[in-house]
Amino acid sequence: MKPVSLAKVAEAIGASLASGDPDALASGASIDSRTIREGDLFFALKGQTDGAEFAADAHEKGAVAAVADRPLDVPTLVVGDVLGAMQTLARWNLVREDAEPPAIVGITGTVGKTTTKDALAAILRHAGRKVSATAGNFNNEIGLPLTVLSADPKTEILVLEMGATHAGDIAALCDIASPRVGILTAISPVHLDSFETLEALAEAKGELAVCLPDDGSLVFPVNAPTTATGSDRSLSRRISFGSNGADLWPSEVEETEEGIRFTANMGGESVEVRTPVFGTHLVQPILAAMGGGVSLGLGLEECAAGVARLKRTGLRGELYRLRDGIIVYDDSYNASPAAVSAVLRYGAGQASQQGKRLVAVLGGMFELGPNARAYHREAGEQAAEAGVDLLVCVGEEARWYAEAFSGETLFFEDADSAAEGLHESLAPGDYVVVKGSRGVGLDALTRELRERLDLV
């Protein structure tokens, strides 16, 4: 955020400056006193704790002022709704007259958002653009305005993940930061405890397409439901990706020791893509990112060159080579039925090619609503069809995988117990895939394996 006086902030968010220097400059935002940077505004949100209790710590670490619902013992902007004020400031920051607004890309979908975001950021940076992008999972009503307010003031393109757990969530995020380019990564079962049906979920994700301006662009999977793609909207450009029949599609997909390789095809042009990430199921989100690059005026060659420099956010498709020839494919960051299926197919292919026993470590999949058991059983059937030799179930929901799996099974109550016991069940030369919802905490398991079996 370009530095702005507290007086101007107060005017923008409708606050009263209870104390502090009105000419003091704010240059960022935080809701965590532990991550304060000099010049940040500290938004004292109320959750399990009252953020106002940490305002003094934040001020000590360099916060220029707190934004709170009451006067505090530090410079304070007083508002009735702290979260609403943060969202209002983010919205104002993107249209302020004293700064050039960045182009905004909104990314939504049930799987692949972070890979797409990372790949698009890599493409744009290689093309010489100044890019700021969502960090971690800051893709909701709190994280998105924080991303906007923490962005470098020289940002030319702002790449924002947009998550949704209820109808209207994405529309509300688009109201804060209005994208000109929208990317829909996929529609598959997730958050069904909130949406109940896949159709309702598709319609919620379709809010991104509906919110785009008439001169905007949408990148979307060729097989996406029309409710998710705003098919009745007149947009400047639409780019579908996926299989043959799409505007942008892959061919000659293969995995090498350096990562994945494929040919991207679009409009009579073909280009070889090499990227240092593992998992052929990642080709689709990479294609989505390339479509985003094309929407922003780049050529396929430029997009391919950028993807070659991709570094993914941790726990998404990381490959570890351990002692005794054991390989671990760690995609443990989160899980949905489609993502688990993709990882099982990928692991089966790799284990078969390398002549290894396939071990699948699966944590439960959360937020699947009343059909959760059926989705887990379906994944268990897929594990059997993929040729999984040992199925390791972690967490209570993961028991449902085993109900439909006929092979050898291990069960651990939680990730900590799995981390303690799994290494004893592994054999030299095993190929291990790890996948589960974030709340299961399977990163503890993969970390323990790396420590016990030594990276090589």
Map the helices and strands.
Layout: E1 4-5, H1 6-13, E2 16-19, E3 25-26, E4 28-30, E5 40-43, H2 55-60, E6 65-68, E7 76-78, H3 82-93, E8 103-108, H4 113-126, E9 131-133, H5 143-150, E10 157-161, H6 169-176, E11 181-184, H7 192-195, H8 198-205, H9 207-211, E12 217-221, H10 226-229, E13 237-241, E14 248-256, E15 259-266, E16 269-275, H11 283-295, H12 300-307, E17 318-321, E18 327-330, H13 337-354, E19 358-363, H14 372-386, E20 390-394, H15 399-403, E21 408-412, H16 415-421, E22 431-435, H17 443-453
Parallel strand pairs: 4-5, 5-6, 6-7, 8-10, 8-11, 9-10, 11-12, 12-13, 18-22, 19-20, 19-22, 20-21
Antiparallel strand pairs: 1-3, 2-7, 14-15, 15-16, 17-18
Helix pairs in contact: 3-5, 4-11, 4-12, 11-12, 13-14, 16-17
Overview features:
Udp-n-acetylmuramoylalanyl-d-glutamate--2,6- Diaminopimelate Ligase, Chain: A, domain 1; Protein-Tyrosine Phosphatase, Chain A; 456 residues; UDP-N-acetylmuramoyl-L-alanine:D-glutamate ligase; alpha/beta; 3 domains; six-stranded mixed sheet
Explain this structure to me?
- The protein contains 17 helices and 22 strands.
- With 456 residues, it is an alpha/beta fold.
- The chain has three domains: 4-80, 3-Layer(aba) Sandwich (Udp-n-acetylmuramoylalanyl-d-glutamate--2,6- Diaminopimelate Ligase, Chain: A, domain 1); 100-307, 3-Layer(aba) Sandwich (UDP-N-acetylmuramoyl-L-alanine:D-glutamate ligase), CATH 3.40.1190; 318-453, Protein-Tyrosine Phosphatase, Chain A.
- The strands form five sheets. Strands 9-10-8-11-12-13 form a six-stranded parallel beta sheet, with helices on both faces. Strands 17-18-22-19-20-21 form a six-stranded mixed beta sheet, sandwiched between helices.
- β12, α10 and β13 form a beta-alpha-beta unit.
- It is globular and about 70 Å long.
- The two termini are 43 Å apart.
